[in-house]
Design goal:
Elements: H1 37-57, H2 72-75
Length: about 80
């Protein structure tokens, strides 16, 4: 899949397709993006949410499972 967001200066645009698309039927769609700020605000919103998540979970201790080994016999011991 190819997705390009461009601001054309002419009414023609050349799109270079990858080799794996040669000989296949592809669909090309062009439409106007009304608000350019939506892309920017989505990115800043995502960064804000990520920082909120980091802040929320930073108060919990870090747990490493590097040396953990699952023991099936112990897990199935119901006695």
């Amino acid at each position: 899949m190819i997705r390009e967001i461009v601001k054309p200066t002419k009414n023609t645009y050349t799109l270079n397709l990858p080799d794996e698309m040669i000989g296949k039927v592809v669909e090309v769609i062009a439409f106007e993006i009304k608000k350019n700020t939506e892309v920017i605000s989505t990115t800043s919103t995502a960064k804000k949410k990520l920082s909120e998540i980091k802040k929320k979970y930073s108060k919990y201790p870090l747990v490493s499972h590097v040396n953990y080994k699952f023991d099936r016999d112990e897990a199935n011991d119901n006695g």
